[in-house]
Design goal:
Elements lengths: L1 H22 L1 H11 L11 H6 L5 E5 L4 E5 L1 H5 L1 H4 L6 H12 L8 H27 L7 H31 L9 H12 L8 H6 L1 H35 L19 H22 L1 H9 L9 H17 L3 H26 L5
Antiparallel strand pairs: 1-2
Helix pairs in contact: 1-7, 1-15, 2-15, 7-8, 8-11, 11-12, 12-15, 13-14
Protein name: Solute carrier family 25 member 36
Keywords: Membrane, Mitochondrion, Mitochondrion inner membrane, Repeat, Transmembrane, Transmembrane helix, Transport
Membrane topology: Multi-pass membrane protein
């Protein structure tokens, strides 16, 4: 029976991850390019270098007009003065669509589809299995159980699927309109340059990123427990009211509120719980995302996790560590809401009524 439960969690995780990834792929492309140091979306990203130039003027490349603009140095350094030249999310999407076509919005979708199902399946499967194991040896369903389970799940998923996400990032950073980098060519090039270990570049950032997963799941479990407690209380009250109103009960005298009552309202509640928990986690732990993307750039001067964070902070300030956060939130909130709610719905659909 326990093995059947693990299979259900694997199926639910894979289905949920695939659904969310396909729907939010264009925003994932924009987010990755904003995080990168080679992105065409960012006109000015090395503030330290600007300070070394003459104070009278600097040259800023404008990708909107594909030309150059000469502006005053203080205008470049003051975000309020060049805000109108920056790419917003919609402008980024339009730019990709114009220069690379509709396929540009879905770059990296192939590796994503290959990786998201096993990644989510490994993640949710490891999480559920670890939680079951810990519940047998320590106080069940405590924050410690959720935290340890989240760490185990995050490390397991990152280790198994890092090569897939590495290839995906390289494909998304390819901005050529002609002779586009293919998945096969990308894999061949990485292997020729660095061998097998090349596919694991940036995994240190992924391991540090487990902290985001931990924060996310601990908050989600707390919200979920509150939702379930309130939902059960409301349904018990409704059942009692129906009995008082002489509504015919079930054959056994009880009203079943298990599988059949996983309503649209429940789905929306889990979506809200997933969105809230992921928002908190992303805002707290976001810099590891920037570091991971930089580490995966081709010919990168970024060598390790902390070296990357230090270099980005030195050259671009605190804002550099949070580049693409807005896009990430816009992408992650609906994506996580869809993933968590789909996961709960599939589990409820496949789990036996008696459980």
């Amino acid at each position: 029976m326990e093995s059947n439960k693990n299979v259900i969690h694997l199926i639910a995780g894979g289905t949920a991850g695939t659904t969310g990834a396909v729907l939010t792929c264009p925003l994932e492309v924009v987010k990755t390019r904003l995080q990168s140091s080679v992105s065409s979306f960012v006109q000015v990203n090395v503030h330290a270098a600007l300070r070394l130039l003459p104070s009278q003027q600097v040259v800023a490349i404008s990708t909107c007009t594909h030309g150059c603009q000469v502006v005053h140095n203080d205008a470049v350094l003051d975000p309020s003065k060049y805000k109108k030249h920056q790419f917003q999310i919609v402008s980024c999407l339009k730019h990709i669509l114009k220069t690379e076509g509709i396929k540009g919005l879905f770059k990296g979708l192939g590796p994503t589809l290959v990786g998201v199902a096993p990644s989510r399946a490994i993640y949710f499967g490891a999480y559920a299995h670890c939680k079951q194991a810990l519940n047998r040896v320590i106080t069940p369903d405590t924050h410690l159980v959720h935290l340890c389970s989240a760490v185990a799940a995050g490390v397991s998923a990152a280790t198994c699927t890092n090569p897939i996400w590495f290839v995906k990032t390289r494909l998304q950073l390819d901005q050529k309109s002609e002779n586009k980098l293919t998945c096969r060519e990308c894999i061949r090039r990485i292997y020729q340059q660095s061998g097998i270990k090349g596919f694991y570049k940036g995994i240190s950032a992924s391991y540090f990123g487990v902290s985001e997963t931990v924060v996310h799941l601990v908050i989600y479990e707390a919200i979920k427990a509150h939702i379930q407690q309130k939902t059960n209380h409301d349904r018990l009250a409704a059942a009692n009211q129906r009995l008082e109103d002489s509504v015919e009960p079930d054959i056994d005298g009880d009203i079943d509120y298990s599988k059949e009552t996983f309503l649209t309202s429940d789905y929306l509640k889990y979506m809200l719980a997933g969105a809230c928990s992921k928002t908190c986690a992303t805002c707290l732990c976001y810099p590891h995302e920037v570091a991971r993307t930089r580490l995966r750039e081709e010919g990168s001067r970024y060598n390790s996790f902390f070296q990357t964070l230090f270099l980005v902070f030195k050259e671009e300030g605190r804002a550099g560590l949070y580049r693409g956060l807005g896009t990430q939130l816009i992408r992650q909130i609906p994506n996580t809401a869809i993933v968590m709610a789909t996961y709960e719905a599939v589990v409820h659909a496949l789990m036996p009524v008696s459980d």
